[in-house]
Write a structure and sequence with these properties.
Elements (H helix, E strand, L loop, with lengths): L2 H4 L6 H13 L3 H7 L17 H18 L9
C-alpha cells in the first residue's frame, strides 16, 4: 500500500473522498492552476506536472489503491 493511501485507511467516506482528492490534485500543479485553487494549497501557479514515466506509474498505483479502498465502503451506508 502506498503511504498516501495508508494515511486514508479507516476514514469515514466524506473525509476519505476529500483527502483522496487532495492527494491526487497535489500531484498535478497544472490542474491546480486550471481549477484556480493552487493558493488554497499554498502553491503558486508557476509549476508544471512531472511527466516522467516513474511519476505516472506511481500516480496510477495510487489511483488503483484509492479505487480499491473506495470499493470497501458500503453504498447503503451513504446518505
Amino acid at each position: 500500500m502506498h503511504p498516501i493511501t495508508a494515511e486514508l485507511a479507516g476514514l469515514g467516506f466524506d473525509e476519505f473522498v476529500d483527502r483522496s482528492f487532495d492527494a491526487l490534485v497535489l500531484r498535478s500543479p497544472q490542474y491546480l492552476a486550471e481549477l484556480g485553487i493552487a493558493e488554497r494549497y499554498g502553491l503558486r501557479n508557476d509549476r508544471l506536472d512531472d511527466m516522467s514515466q516513474e511519476f505516472i506509474e506511481e500516480t496510477q498505483a495510487i489511483e488503483s489503491s484509492l479505487l480499491e479502498m473506495l470499493r470497501t465502503y458500503d453504498p447503503t451506508d451513504l446518505d
